[in-house]
Design goal:
Length: 130
């Protein structure tokens, strides 16, 4: 995707970029199945407040209304996978994915237990499964 390809370029420019593993468990929203689902829910909730503006970009706006969702057997919300969206639309929702990733920083700080970040390494939360 766009985010993966852009990381080396952004690092070369000296920008503080972070790798985010969206397949991790949800960080703050227990109703979300994975972190990716939580990030998309965060975007939805942010936009629902109507106290914001987004660029007048047709690609971004189309991406934001693209995903379908379902519920897992345990009742957690699951946003349609990127692969399923690509198959259905014949394009990738890269613009909305990029917007969703801007919400990833909050989840990394859950309980103030974020590991110190090392450039070039994925951002990881110290969460133990009991």
């Amino acid at each position: 995707g766009v985010q993966t390809c852009a990381l080396p370029i952004l690092r070369e420019l000296g920008l503080p970029v972070r790798d985010v593993n969206v397949s991790e468990v949800a960080a703050l929203n227990q109703k979300a199945n994975r972190l990716r689902d939580e990030l998309w829910i965060s975007v939805r909730d942010f936009l629902a407040q109507r106290a914001c503006r987004i660029p007048k970009d047709d690609s971004l706006r189309a991406d934001l209304v693209t995903p379908k969702y379902s519920f897992t057997s345990s009742g957690k919300l699951q946003v349609e996978s990127k692969a399923e969206m690509k198959k259905r639309l014949r394009r990738s929702p890269d613009y909305a994915d990029a917007m969703a990733l801007t919400f990833a920083g909050r989840g990394a700080m859950v309980g103030g237990r974020m590991a110190s970040w090392v450039p070039g390494k994925p951002l990881r939360r110290r969460i133990s499964i009991v």
